[in-house]
Amino acid sequence: MTKRIAIIGAGPGGYVAAIRAAQLEAQVYLIENREIGGTCLNRGCIPTKTYFRNAQILSDLRNSHEFGIKVDGFSLDGKALLERKNKVVNDLVSGIERLIGSYQNIELIQGKASFKDKNTLNVQLNGGGSKEVEADNIIIATGSFPQMTETKGIDLPGVITSDDLLELDHVPETLIVVGGGVIGLEFASIYKELGSHVILLASRILKDGDKEIAKRLTPMLKKQGIETYVDIRAKEITKDGEHLKVVARYKEKDEEIEVIGDYVLIASGRAPLVEGLNLEGIGVEFSGRGIKVNDSYETTVPGIYAIGDVNSKGIQLAHVASSQGEYVVETIMGHKPDLNHEHWPACVFTMTEVAQVGFTEEQLKEKGIDYRSSKFMFSANGKALSLGETDGIVKILASNEDNRILGVHIIGPHANDLIHEGALAISNNMDVSAIKRTIHAHPTLSEAFFEAALGLDEAAIHIAPKKKRRG
Fold first, then answer.
1. Residue 465 to residues 395, 447, 452, 458, 461: CA-CA distances in angstroms?
2. How do 197-202 and 4-8 pair as beta strands?
3. 345 in any annotated domain
4. 408 and 391, same domain (yes or no)
5. pLDDT in tens, 50-69
6. Prior bond to 146 cis, omega within 30?
7. Is 0.85 topped by the overall pTM?
8. pLDDT, tens digit, 9 for 90 and up, residues 131-165
9. Catalytic residue among 243, 343, 442, 462
10. Whether the Cβ atoms of residue 354 and residue 206 lie closer than 8 Å to each other
11. Which residues are within 8 A (CB) of 257 and not within 5 positions of it... i.e. 6 or more apart?
12. Catalytic annotation on 442?
C-alpha cells in the first residue's frame, strides 16, 4: 500500500522532503499558502545574497585604484537593484515549481492548513473553499517569521523587519540596525556598501560563534565604515522630525547614546510559525522555542513530525531544514538515514565572510575535551594577496586524544565556500592526517586550510616555528 505523506510548508525543508518522498514512491500532498521556496528563496537567503553581490561589486569599484584601475562616475539605481533581486527570486521559484510538477506523485495544494486530527488536515484554499487531506504521516515545515523586540516605539513608521527592507526601491541614507546576529550583521555590511550610513547596535556579535572570531569581526565592521556599538541594547525609538531616534543603553556601564536614522531595522531573530495550525487541539506540544521534537524530529503525537525553523532544535538554517526533511521522509519510508546532524556549517555573508562548523573553543572547554588549535593568516596566502583580501584567519581545533578535527572557524575571503572541507572532515570523523595527505592546489585560498591543519602537528611550511625557550 502506498504511503501517504502530507507536508505543511513548501520552503527548503518542505519541498525537499516532498521530492525525497516522491523519489521513495510515497503519495505526497505539499501544502503552501504563500510562495514556493519559503523565507529562504523569497525573503531570506537568496535575496540577501543577490544584494551581497551588488555590494561586492560596489566595494570593488570603490577600491579599484588599489589595482591600478580608475573608475569614475558610477552610481546605484535602487529600482534596478530591486528588479534584479526579484528576477533572481522569480527564476529560482519558477524552477522549483517546475521541479515539483515533474513528479506525478506530488500534489501541490495552495492554501492554509490546520489539523482536524492526527491524520487529517483541513486546508482553506487560496482560491476559496476548503479541502480535507488525509495522510499516514504529516510533516510540519512552516518555518519562522521576523521577531520584533519589546523596545518602545517599534510600531512607528520606518521601524522595519528584514522582509520590509528587501522590498524598498531605494537605499536608505542612514540605516540603524538593531541586532548583532547573522541577519543584523549581513544587512549592516551589505547596506554599507550599497551606500547607506549604517549604525549597528549589538548586544553581542555572533553570540553562538567562536569568541575569537567574533572579536576579530568587530574591528573589521568598523574598518568597513559601519558605526558599531557593542554590549548595548536599544531602549526606545521615537520620531525626530522626519527621522527616527534610537536611545540605547550600555549593558555594563551607566551610559546611554542617541542615534538618528531614516529607518530602524529590527534584526533580533526569528520566531517559529505555528499560528493557525491547531496544534493544541491534537495534543502537539510547543512553546516559544518551537514545536517539541525528539532526535528523529517526531512531535509528541506519533506520526507527526516538525522540521526546520519551526521545531525546538533552534537551528534556523535552510540547509539544515532540507537535511531534516530528507531524514524524516527516509525514516517514515522505512530507511535508515545516513546523515550527520550533530554538526553543520553556518555561514555569515558580511563583506569579510565568516563560517564555522563543529565545536567552538568555549564548547570544548565546557565539555572538558583536551584539544589543540592552529591558525593560519590569510595575509600569508598568495591567492588572498592577489585578491587584495588579506584580513582574517583559518582556525582549526583538533582532539589531543585521537587527532580528530573537532571544529573549523574561518573569517576571511570566501570563508563560506572554504568551510565545506571542514564540514566534510568533521561529519566523517576525519583526523588531521587525512588533510595532511591531501595535496591542495596552488595558488588557492584552500591552502590556508591546509596550512592550518599542518600547523596542528607543527608541520606547516609557511608558519614560522615557535621560538624555543632557553634553559
1. 17, 18, 13, 8, 9
2. unpaired
3. no
4. yes
5. 999 999 999 999 999 999 99
6. no
7. yes
8. 999 999 999 999 999 988 888 999 999 999 999 99
9. 442
10. yes
11. 229, 232, 247, 248, 250
12. yes
Verify that 116 and 11 share a domain, yes or no.
Answer: yes
CA-based max dimension of the chain: 86
**Beta carbons of 407 and 364 less than 8 angstroms apart:** yes
3-class secondary structure for 134-168? ECCEEEECCCEEECCCCCECCCCCCEECHHHHCCC
pLDDT tens for residues 295-328? 999 999 999 999 999 999 999 999 999 999 999 9
Residues 6+ apart with CB under 8 A from 395: 210, 212, 213, 373, 374, 375, 408, 409, 410, 452
- The DSSP letter of residue 404 is B
For 298, which DSSP code?
A: B
Number of folded domains in the chain?
A: 3
Return d(Cα 127, Cα 93) in angstroms, integer: 20
Inform me whether the pLDDT recorded for 471 exceeds 50: no
For residue 179, give the C-alpha cell.
Answer: 541586532
- Residue pointed to by grid coordinates 595575509: 379
Residue at grid coordinates 527621522: 243
410: its cell numbers = 574561518
Cα 281 → chain centroid: 32
Domain stops at, among 245, 268, 291 = 268
Q: Tell me how crowded residue 338 is: count the other CB atoms within 10 A of its CB.
A: 7
* E strand spans, 187-269: 197-202, 227-230, 232-240, 243-250, 256-261, 263-266
Residue found by looking up cell 561529519 in the block:
427
Q: Check which CATH number belongs to the domain holding 412 and give it.
A: 3.30.390.30
Cα distance between residue 149 and residue 438, in whole Å: 48
Q: Which three cell numbers stand for residue 215?
A: 572579536
Torsion 158-160-165-166 (CA) sign: negative
Ramachandran sector of residue 463 (left: φ over 0; alpha: ψ -120 to 50; beta: rest): beta
Helix H segments across 261-413?
Answer: 279-282, 318-332, 361-367, 382-387
Specify the residue for cell string 526579484: 86
